[in-house]
Amino acid sequence: MTASYASLLQGATSPGLFSWRGDPDRDLAGEALGAGWRALGLDTTEVDSVPAFYDAVAESWDLPSWFGRNLDALFDVLGDLTMTPTVLVWDGLRELADVDPMHAAAVLEVLRDAVGQAPAFAVIVRDDLGVSEFDGLL
Fold it and tell me: What is the DSSP string of the chain?
């Protein structure tokens, strides 16, 4: 299924885990903010380890130093951050998968679980993944 980003922000498309297939320079976070959503960014294109991934998460989301830097802590913090409609725009899944494919898959499972628990949480992965497990979004 391919949906439009506008339909997601308007509530016509259910939140979920999406692979971005549109303009790579589009300001997805700005559009989310303009539509009344919270916008979280995550850029892991420079990660070279799993700890560097969690450092990027903590820095991007301005988390306290005691953030647990593990999958359970990631799920917990997403629960706190997604109490209102939230879009996460993630650049760098491919790089995390190159570093540790099993951990990248586990992070995706955490994100799927968080999407299922939050009132309205969408994850937009801006990598050309060439996989079919994501719905497309334009």
Answer: -EE-HHHHHTTSS---EEEE-S-TT--HHHHHHHTT-EEEEEE-TT--SHHHHHHHHHHHTT--TT---SHHHHHHHHHHHTSS-EEEEEE-HHHHHHH-HHHHHHHHHHHHHHHHHSSSEEEEE-S----SSSEEE-
Q: How many CB atoms lie within 10 A of CB 90?
A: 24
- The pTM score is 0.90
Domain carrying residue 8:
2-137
* CATH number, domain containing residue 133: 3.30.370.10
User: To which residue do tokens 């009344």 refer?
Assistant: 36
Give pLDDT tens digits for 80-124.
999 999 999 999 999 999 999 999 999 999 999 999 999 999 999
Which residues share a beta bridge with 134? Answer: none
Residue position matching structure tokens 């506008």: 6
What confidence score (pLDDT) does residue 132 get?
A: 47
Q: Which of 120, 119, 117, 29 is nearest to 76 (CA)?
A: 117
